[in-house]
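Fold this complex.
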Amino acid sequence: MHAIEKILMKNSGKSSIETGEIVNAKIDFAEINDLYLQTVYSFYEMGGKNVWDNTRCAFVFDHYAPCPDIKSAENHKAMREFALKNNLKYHFDTNTGVCHQVMPEAGLIYPGMIVVATDSHTTTHGAFGAMGTGCGATDMATILMTGELWFRVPEIIEVRLEGEAPKGVYPKDVILAVLGKIRADGAVYKAIDFTGSYVEGLNVAGRMTICNMAVEMGAKTAYMQPNDSVIEYVSKRAVRPFEVQHTDEGYKYSESYVFDVSTLEPELACPSSVENVHTLRSVIAGGDVKLNQGYIGSCTGGRVEDIEIAAKILKGRHIPEYTRLVVIPASREVMIECIAKGYITDLMNAGATISTPGCGACLGAHEGILAPGEVCITSTNRNFPGRMGSTEALMYLASPATVAASMVYGKITDPREFL
Amino acid sequence: MLKVLTGKCIVVGDNIDTDQIYPGRFLAITDPKEIGSHCLCGVSEEIAGNFPKGGFVVAGRNFGCGSSREHAPIALLNMGAVAVLADSFARIFFRNAVNLGLLPVICKGISEKVKAGETLTLDLEAGTVKSEDTGEIFQCEKLGDQAMKILEAGGIKPMMRARFAEK
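Structure:
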């Protein structure tokens, strides 16, 4: 059996479980972000009175933090009222950051649990050996009423990442390379287990970046067997006791892919699809790609490690005139650490615009929207048409190092020049 | 629920993501009719206003990929769509659609065979889509038992209301 199956089996109270079976599983933690006031509407429409457990669900106000308009302010107000009425133990207002960073920091994510959130990037929590998956607002309302959700037990794909990353190749480059191979629908309705020596040696931030983008291949959930870095992280924070699950020897995956990370290069997902992946070298060889904006942030690329490498590349340099770099730390905790380490000062001296921890322009809500014809390089997760503003803007997805290097000249640039 | 549905269709491509179905800049809107008026505006601003009511959206692979936003099926339903016929669907979109009573039907290859404006008949029990214009019949995958149970209850909301009323 696979660890994911064991998690589903345990939470559905069953003694065996089969691929394709529909199970009702208990949800260990449910999170609603501030895009989904519909969750509250659906809850009442379905006859909900109080949430099933006020210690196991929370709102995180991240997509509109702080509110850019009256409508989102009204939505926040209604959500606060719901949270207060239900006496929710945890509440994360506009001063906290992106839900997928905030929940692990608060100790709400730990190995062996099921976390469901109204956000597709909930696959991030596979980094901790948890089963994380996204759902819509009304599915979430059913969880708030019952504490359960139905799941189809998924086929599990192994993505084995072996070897050490060469200079200039970061977890973001690795997941882009994987995405280019498996494509945007290669894992629809399935789970992805990332294995191999590269994963075993990877820190928490890198593991989160990789699991985060599993959903860009359609995956229902992602998984990584917890390593020492994860156990150290969660042991200091977890609000509940936890049990690490292990995949049995000889488990048969539905498909397996093997990548030799030592042969990879910096990668880009070019406009306007996450699967349009090319090596940075090949894009540069095709001619200069001039940029209007660089963006470092989000649940994919806004952690301390991401801002650190950007600060190291840009320290003592300055972005060109008529170019802008927006940096949004993924959480308050991340921002405080980056301030203490001087990274924020270095980036501001280089000409960066710093904004409040949250999702920012990643989804085109505010804080860095693109005009028609503009070109942006970003450490975020999606470059769909219109994702960051105009449908006529172009977005390249890259590692934070590539974004920072590209901001030195205002055109797509290889970070290895600065490492 | 109706098992045989007839209506006109529009045709879109592969990987139509939730940002194209319903862009982020409209996410704070909660009125369903207004949400419907912006449907598929990331593909073309012309679609929602001209959509044939009671019709179908025909698409390629991975329809509804991207965000978990339930605004996507809300927009499609309020634009007047009753079903999406596609090569494949992203998982969260599939669940959201079933929950709200929008039919997500896997019908491989259909987007390459039918043209916008054709009249189609979807027969859920037979598992077929017929073009009334050309007579061509396409096989679709039947929806699973769990999805049918929710759809036959009229969506997850009536189903949950009944369950909680019993209590």
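Chain A touches chain B through 49 residues (CB under 8 Å).
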